[in-house]
Amino acid sequence: QVQLVESGGGLVQAGGSLRLSCAASGRTFRSSAMGWFRQAPGKERAFVAAISWSGGLTYYADSMKGRFTITISRDNAKNTVYLQMNSLKPEDTAVYYCAAIRDLDTRSWSRWGEYDYWGQGTQVTVSS
Hints:
Elements: E1 3-7, E2 10-13, E3 18-25, E4 33-39, E5 46-51, E6 58-60, H1 62-65, E7 70-75, E8 80-85, E9 94-101, E10 117-118, E11 122-127
Parallel strand pairs: 2-11
Antiparallel strand pairs: 1-3, 3-8, 4-5, 4-9, 5-6, 7-8, 9-10, 9-11
């Protein structure tokens, strides 16, 4: 079992930055890959980024790769995963969720249905 609690969301102006945190509890956290997803109003939940259990492998959605402004990281000593977002745009407005996945196949990491545990989400609002 893994329990996940996101924090760090809020209201920010376009061009600003936020760092989202996901605090985890449970013995399987350190052996789980972690992902961030987001869901905007009226849209499907979309993959943002994922990171392996060791932190040695990161994976970003194709829509994020060209921006160089989003970074996923984790600190297993603190049982926490982070999503650093810079140069935010109004289209980044969404509820952001972190999730844990036990499947080691990286092809699963972008599919929200493959994840085993979810947090409650944190709202990010970017004003223009």
